Amino acid sequence: MYEANDVTEEEVNHLFMIHKKPLCQGCRVNTRDNPNCFCALVPPPNGTRKSGLWQKTSELIQALGPDLSSHRRASLSSPSGLTNLGATCYANSILQCLYMNSAFRDGVFSLEAEVLQQHPVLDQIARLFAQLRASNRSFVDSDAFVKTLELDNEIQQDTHEFLTLLLSLLERCLSHSAVSKAQTIVQHLFRGRVSHVTS
């Protein structure tokens, strides 16, 4: 039985069988069984390494541009975008317009927790708005909202029709709120009247 610091260097070498392994002569391939080989820790000038401490990005990947998943917002005053999940740009444009409407956004943020729990669409839009406001990333994933509405991300929809249906749904859900500015926000901001006059 060994006490602390009783293991000798010779015993460590024996444990890792260093005495049986040849010293590396610049093989450029990291031999998994050879603790003497450190060649692949740093890739050769024209090579690449897919993972590891000294990862090098290939010229092809560099030509594609920066990794969008690591993009960060320049400042909190510049809004985040939404990921396009296929043919969801019509929904994303409406969501971004609704978010940029500060009165609507404040109405959504004023909702009670119980109302959010009872109405998944309100919960998802509140979560999405919170991410758009607080996220450091330059874009936010709208997948949960799209799934809540059961939108098909392979079929393009009419933006105006989507807005009309979404506002009708939100109006019904918001009517359950006890917060007056949230309860009537859709009627207050988006309801209008069309009249046709024939002379």
TrEMBL record:
GO MF annotations, alphabetized: cysteine-type deubiquitinase activity
Keyword Nucleus: yes
Broad enzyme group: hydrolase
SUPFAM superfamilies: Cysteine proteinases
Catalyzed reactions per annotation: Thiol-dependent hydrolysis of ester, thioester, amide, peptide and isopeptide bonds formed by the C-terminal Gly of ubiquitin (a 76-residue protein attached to proteins as an intracellular targeting signal)
Enzyme Commission designation: 3.4.19.12
Key words, A-Z: Hydrolase, Nucleus, Protease, Thiol protease, Ubl conjugation pathway
Descriptive protein name: ubiquitinyl hydrolase 1
Assigned protein family: Belongs to the peptidase C19 family.
Keyword Hydrolase attached: yes
Localization per record: Nucleus
Entry's Gene Ontology BP terms: protein deubiquitination; proteolysis
Record domain USP: where: 80-199
